[in-house]
Amino acid sequence: MRLRLAQAFAAALLLGAALPAWAWEDYEQGDNVPMVTVPAAPPSPNRLPIFGLMADVGVPDGLIGSLAIRPFSWVRVSGGGGTNGISRGWRTGITLLPFAAGPSASFEYGRYQNGDANPLAKKVIGGGFDGSPLLERVGYEYMNGHLGLDFGSRRVVFFLHGGVTMVRGKVHNVDAAIRDATPQNAGATGTTEVVVRQDPTVKAIGSSVKLGLIVYIW
After folding, report:
1. H/E/C letters for each residue in the chain?
2. Distance separating alpha carbons of residues 184 and 117, to the nearest angstrom
3. Which of 73, 91, 79 is nearest to 157 (CA)?
4. Exposed, middle or buried: residue 42 (CB in 10 Å: 0-12, 13-18, 19+)?
């Protein structure tokens, strides 16, 4: 009895060892292997492009080129750089569009580094302007709060925004400007001398407007 059980157990082990080899050989030969092909889902025709290139011009923004990202139809973020005719700067912002197009609200922050504004002032004022020490280092930061209209929603968007801006900057070379404005014989006539030991900071709140174009590429 024990001999028969041992023989049966050995036969089962041999059969179990042989079956995986047969199955693997059949799999390699491609016998009885089901092939299932799942077609890729077509892109949704309603999907809006996300990434775009934006260019706009305005005050106090200057001329700005940005990367625009639209993760959802109702929101757009942007960031880029440009110039105000004096120096280089950058700006970042967010725009909310509750209806994907039409009315919009934008909030932006930007900064321009110091630059010489005398060449620009000469072009605007004319050849009679000799320059001013106050314009030798002009730079500022600004914050915009705009309402506007955005026309278009898929590939091309044109917008017109306007509202309020706050500009903050320092006035440099005040001492030099005072000296230039003071007559050479002021000391002999007893005129009080004014000395500015620290550059004053100037803040201003005013109106702001800009128009721009966005082309979404992907």
Report:
1. CHHHHHHHHHHHHHHHHHHHHHHHHHHHHCCCCCCCCCCCCCCCCCCCCCEEEEEEEEECCEEEEEEEEEEECCEEEEEEEEECCCCEEEEEEEEECCCCCEEEEEEEEEEEEEECCHHHHHHHHCCCCCCCHHHCCEEEEEEEEEEEEEECCCCEEEEEEEEEEEEEEECCCHHHHHHHHCCCCCCCCCCCCCCCCCCCEEEEEEEEEEEEEEEECC
2. 26
3. 73
4. exposed
Number of other CB atoms surrounding residue 105 within 10 Å = 15
Q: Which residue has the tokens 């620009």?
A: 120
- Output phi, psi for 9, to 5 deg: -65, -40
Its CATH class, for the domain covering 51-216, is mainly beta
Rounded to an integer, what distance in angstroms lies between the CA atom of residue 218 and that of residue 199? 47
Q: Does residue 183 have a cis bond before it (omega within 30 degrees)?
A: no
Q: Tell me the whole-structure pTM to 2 decimals.
A: 0.74
Spatial separation of the C-alpha atoms in residues 18 and 72, rounded to whole Å: 59
Q: How many CA atoms lie within 13 A of 185 on its CB side?
A: 2
* Rounded Cα–Cα distance for residues 182 and 193 (Å): 9
- In DSSP terms, 69 is beta-bridged to 51, 77
pLDDT of residue 46: 75
Give the tens place of pLDDT for each residue, 71-105.
Answer: 999 999 999 999 999 999 999 999 999 999 999 99
Report the candidate in 58, 61, 54 with the shortest Cα–Cα distance to residue 110. 61
